[in-house]
Design a protein that fits this description.
The protein has about 280 residues and is α+β, with helices and mostly antiparallel strands. It has two domains: about 15-35 and about 115-275, no CATH class; about 55-110, no CATH class. Helices cover about 30% and strands about 20% of the residues. The protein has nine helices and ten strands. The chain is globular and about 65 Å long.
């Protein structure tokens, strides 16, 4: 359910198998102090190797001369490339930065067929206490998936694929402060959760005919997400000290590479990932 696929779609179970095998091999490590610690470690390793990191400036152009990339322009500065420019970006953004003339027609055609995944609706919570799950195992788990039957989970993806806010969203929840208490004040906890939604909803499966624009539906849909948690953890809402809502458009505004709130950077469909 981390992907944009319904459970019935061929190959969809492969991602659960991959995650399980990774867990068996290396466990599920958590970075103390937050995921920013991972970025800091990578940056330190790069600097140790003689690398230079420039941040806080937007890349305006990927410079291509005589069919070869030679550097980038960012914030009024030019950065030369000895061998290559690695652009971990949505393919359409790469074409926009380098210009379509820099690519063979076949490559442009391939990018034109590249399918994005669903959008993401995310909520961050500050809690007075841990989530009061009815299931004891959930009180110890770093990640909890909330859904009803496989059929209900499939329906939620189907609704999102067809432009509707799911009536019963399937949730992925991270209880990171259980493993790393430094992420919250003493005795308190953090929780994040997300679910797949259309980037720009055309309707609401639970409220036919109602306004589904994020400006009017974000708070209402966040309440629906909380109700799904409350059903398995009575008293959850009473513990909420604050919440921060991220619609797909909010995520894209914070990071332009998360186009339409697609945090996976493209559909997980097996033809796109493997073939």
């Amino acid at each position: 359910m981390h992907s944009d696929l319904q459970p019935e779609v061929g190959g969809s179970g492969a991602y659960a198998l991959i995650m399980h095998l990774l867990g068996e091999r290396v466990g599920m490590p958590v970075a103390e102090g937050g995921s920013g610690a991972v970025s800091a470690a990578l940056a330190a390793a790069l600097r140790h190797a003689g690398g230079v990191i420039a941040t806080g400036r937007r890349v305006d152009r990927i410079v291509v001369e005589h069919g070869r990339v030679v550097g980038v322009e960012a914030g009024g500065n030019a950065f030369g490339a000895r061998r290559a420019v690695i652009a971990a970006l949505d393919p359409q953004l790469v074409i926009g930065l380098a210009g379509p003339d820099a690519f063979p027609a076949r490559s442009l055609a391939q990018v034109g067929r590249y399918r994005r995944g669903l959008g993401t609706f995310k909520v961050d919570w500050a809690l007075d206490r841990p989530v009061p799950w009815l299931a004891e195992a959930c009180r110890r788990a770093g990640v909890v998936h909330v859904g009803d039957s496989v059929r209900a989970m499939s329906k939620a993806v189907w609704e999102a694929l067809y432009g509707l806010l799911p009536a019963r969203p399937t949730l992925i929840l991270g209880q990171q402060s259980l493993a790393d208490p430094s992420r919250a004040p003493a005795g308190q906890h953090t929780l994040w959760g997300y679910t797949h939604v259309p980037a720009r909803p055309a309707g609401d499966a639970a409220r036919p005919g109602s306004d589904a624009e994020w400006t009017g539906s974000a708070e209402r849909f966040a309440d629906r997400v909380e109700a799904a948690i409350e059903a398995h953890a009575p008293g959850f809402r009473e513990l909420i000290l604050a919440r921060r809502i991220w619609t797909p458009l909010d995520l894209e505004e914070a990071n332009p590479n998360v186009v339409g709130g697609d945090i996976n950077g493209g559909s997980f469909a097996i033809d796109q990932q493997l073939l």
